[in-house]
Amino acid sequence: MAIYAVGDIQGYFKPFSQLLKIIRFDPAIDQLWIAGDMVNRGPDSLQVLRFIHNLGDAAKPILGNHELHLLAVATGVRPQKQGDTLDEILNAPDLDELIFWLRHLPFVYVDKSIKTLMVHAGVYCKWSRKKLIRLSKEVESVLQGDDYIEFLKNMAGKRPKKWKKTLTGWDRYRFIANACTRLRFCSNKGKVDFRYKGPPGSQPHKLIPWFRHPKRSCNKWRIVFGHWSTLGYCREANVISLDSGCLWGKKLTAVQLDCEDERIWQIGCS
Questions:
Q1: Pairing relation of β-strands 3-6 and 31-34?
Q2: What is the mean pLDDT of residues 31-55?
Q3: Predicted model pTM
């Protein structure tokens, strides 16, 4: 058995399937962790979703911001954006089945046997591993419940920018979802910036990449994440960034997590 993690696929089935052949992924015995953003921008989002869905327990996908966007579009909460490639999913005969499946995916996946957690964007600096898991389950419960459309209506926005345990209602759920699926930079005092998307080193001087925050609470387990295409593949301290810009014609990355040397494979997406 091997445990592999793959970065943001974004609807590019061909390089995704080629990468699985290169790593010799066997769904009968292996696990495939998928760091969110399976869909949108590429030409084959429906094929990617169906393939991962059909893998059953061999696949461990989590929600990214593009899955949340798809849910909002599919339920009529928001229109498509320029550059979206979701029409094939929206017109698919199995749309309802896929939407139900997506609604029941987690924001965070944890494997205690290898002391590793996966989240799409990052871990807010003031949250411990246990707190991240507990808070993410709050939002999962809403998304899986009868009020999920109300959540989708209220999840858009960049506020609040700082976590407070006294946050309630949609402000609370929005911050948790944003932290899990959109986080890149925050200030020394924990104020999150959801606007700046450049690589570390190019940001305004008051901003810090979340994984370099000097007061980061979740720092003992390995963290696998995607989302940050301008960062690309990065292995630093106990974090692994896997979004290597497949949607920009760069690379799709896979890492084997259950071996000491963390074997890495990449394939071009041009």
A1: parallel
A2: 97
A3: 0.96
